[in-house]
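User: Show me sequence and structure for the first protein, then do the same for the second.

Assistant: Starting with the first protein.
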Amino acid sequence: MTEPLRDGDESHQSSTRARAWARIPVIIASGVVAVLILGAALAWHAEAKTNKVALVSSPKPVTVLAAKGEPFRAVHTYVGALRPWVEAKIGPQFNSAYVETVLVRPGAVVTKGQVLATLDCRNEAAQTASIFSKAKAIAARQRATSHEAARTSSLLDGGFVSINESEVISARSDSEAAALAAEQADLARSTLDVNDCILRAPFDGEVFIRLVDPGSFVRPSTEMLGVVDRNTIRMTADAPESDFDGIPPGAQVTVHVVSINLDIPATITRRAPSADLGTRTVHFEIDLDNSNRRIPVNTTGEIHVPVGEAVPATSVPIRAVTMNDKKATLFTIDGGIAHRETLVELGEVGANVFFAPDALKPGTLIVSEGRALLKDGDHVAVKVQSPEPAPTVSNAAQGKKEAGK
C-alpha cells in the first residue's frame, strides 16, 4: 500500500515547483539577449564587408610592359603557293577501255618509264597484229616485184623484153612499196594505241593522287594518276605593279612555309617582264632546294622582301594597341595615371607594331592588359609583365600585300 504523504513532503514539492516557475522568465530573458547579441554581431559583420570607397575613385589594376627600342626596316609580304618543279596528270590519250591494273598509290616514289597502270586493250592488240601481218605480206610481195623489175631491166639490152613490159613491172614494184609504206603507217598508229594502254611515269617523282581503280571505264583525257617532282620547288607569287623594282632577280628574301612553320633564306630566281592585264600584278618565282622532300607542294607560303634601310624605332606588342588603318591607340602610364594616346605607326612585324622614337620613347610603360576599362586620366595599380622572348622575325612588315595563293 502507498504511504500517505506527510506534511513535510508536501511543503518540499511546493517549494520545488515554485523555484522552477521562477527560473522560466530568466531563461526567456537570456534567450532574447543571446538573439539580440547574435543579430548585432551579424549586422556588424555585414557592415564591415561593405566598401565605403567609390569604385570609380579606386586605382584600376592593369598589367604593363616597357616599350622596346629596336631598329625597324619595312618588309613587304606576299602570299603565294609552293608549286612542284614538274607536275603531270596521267591518263589515256587515244583509247576508251576498262582499267585492268593500277600499280601505285599516293606517296609511292616512281622512276621515269615505270609502269603505273594498264588498260584492257585486247582489241587494239589484235588490230595491231593484223596490220603487222598485212605489212609483212606486202613487204614479201614488194621484194618479189622489186627483184622481178631488176631482172626485167637487165633483159632490155638484149631485146628479150619490151620497154612497156619492163615499165609495168617497175610500176607494180613501186605500187607495192607505196602500199607497204601505208601499212607501216597504220602499224605505227596502231602501235601508239597499244602503247597508250600501258601508262608509264613521265619523269622521276612521287604519286600524289589516284583517281581510278581496276574495273573503271576511262576515255581519252581521263585523269587516272598524278605525279609530281618536288626535288626543286617553285615558290610562286604575284606582286602589285608598283613593287616591280622591289622584286628584281637576285634579291635576298625569306620564305615562310606555313604548313611546317619553316623560314628559309632564298633569292628571287625569275620575274615576269610584264604585268597581268586583268590584275595588274607581276609574277615572280623562287627556286627552293627540296632534295630531302620535307616541304609539301601546292601549299601556302609567304615571301618577306626587305625594303629600304633600317631606322631607329620603338616596338610595342600589337595586342596592347587598337589599330585603325595606320593609327594606333594605346594607354601609357606616368605617375600611376593612364594616358590615352593615338600614334601613327611605322609598320608591323609578327606580333609587334613600330613607332617613331620621338613619338613613343623606349622604356615607356604601356598597358597590355586591362585597357578595355580604362579612360584617360584614370588612376591605376600597376603590375609589370615579365619580358617576352624575342620574335623570330627581326624586321617589320609595312602592310601585308596578298596575291593569289
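Switching to the second protein now.
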Amino acid sequence: MARGVWHDQMRFWRFIVNERVTVENVIEGWSEQTREAVCGRHVLAIQDTSEIKFSTTPDDGRELGKIGKGNIFGVLLHAMMAVDAETGSCLGLAGGKVWTRKDDVKVPHAQRNLSDKESERWLTTAEQAKQVLAGARMITVINDREGDFYAHWARTPADRVHLLSRVMHDHALVDGRTLRQAVKRVPFSAKAVIDLPRRMDRGPRKAHVELRFGSVVLRRPKNTVEKDLPASVRLNFIEVIEQHPPKGAEPIHWLLLTTHAVTSVSDAWQIVAWYKQRWIIEQFFRSMKSQGLQIEDSQLQTAIRLIKLVAIAAKAAAVVIQLVQARNGADSLPAGFAFSAEEVEVLETINKNLQGKTELQKNPHRKHTLAWAAWVIAKLGGWSGYASHRPPGPITIHNGLAQFQVLVRGWRLQQV
C-alpha cells in the first residue's frame, strides 16, 4: 500500500474513533453551505429514511440493532435535502438523524408518546429545517407515506412553511367519512402524460394519468396520546391515477395531501410536479450504497463508529448529487454551495494543472460555479474531460472527491 494512502486512512480512522467527534457535530455540519444557498428561494425540503445494512455474525453483532424484517442489522439514516422548487437543483442537506435500534420496545405503539416513537424524526427534522432554511422565501416539506400522521399535519405547518405528503392512512374526517371515501366522490377533472424517471425497479417511462382534487378536514384521532393537538386540520388532496399502465408495469397511484392552496387544475399539477422531485432523495441514498460510496461494505466494528461513518458519508453523497446535476452547466450555481472558501481556492489551483493547451482540453464552465467544480472533480475521478465523451456519473464523482480531499489536506499542511 502506498504510504500516502495509508496515512490518509489512518487520519480518517483517528477521526472516526475520536470521542470528541460526535454524530451531532457531523450532522450540524451538513447544512453549513445550505443556509446561504436557500436564501430567497422556494425550497422543497424532501425527507426520507433509508436502512443501511451491515454484515454481522451470530458471535459478532457489531452492537447494531435490527432493521427491516428478519435478522438484518444496521443503521437508519433519516435525511432532508433542500431542493430549488423551480429548477430542481439540490442545494444541500438541511438536517436529519442517524441511529441504530436498541432493545425491542415493550409498550404498544398507540400507547407511547410521540417523543418515544421513531416517527418523531419527521417532525424534529422539519423543525431543524425551519432554522437552517430560515432565509428561504417559502418551504415545502415533502414526505413519503411514513410521514403521513396527524401530529405532523398539526404541528409542522407554519408561516411560509407548507407540508406535502403521500397518504398512508385513511384519516377520519370531521363529517364522519374517511379520507378515501371523500376522494372517491370527486370526479376526475384532468388528464395528462407525465414523465417517470428511472428507478431501481424500472426504467424511465411515460404515464397517462387522470387527476382529481378537493379539500377535506381531518379529525384528531380518538386514541392519540397527544391531547394538545387541535381538534381538526383542514387540508387539500390531489389524487393521480394511471388507469391503463403498460403491460407488466406497476400503475401510478398517488393520493397526496398538502397545506398548499389547490383551487385549480394548474395548482394540482404543480403539487404533483413538486412531489415528483422526491425521487432525488432516492438517488442520494443510492449514491451512498451500490452506486457510489458502497458504505455497506465497511468493516468498522462498533455501532457508534458506523453511525459516524454514515453521517460523514451523507454529506459526501449530497455533494455528489450537486455535482452530477451541475456537470452540464445548465444552472450557474456557485461552487460555494457545496465547498468551503478554502476548498474553492484548492479547486482553482487544481483546475490550472488539469487543463490542457487546446480549448477542448480546458474547463468550459464559468469560474467558481458548481459546473466548473464538477469538471475538476470529474477529471480527478478519471473522466477524460471531453464533452463528446460520456458525462461523469456518481462513481466517477465519488472517486474524484476522494482524491480532492487528499489534496485539500496536503494544501492545509503546506499553508502551515
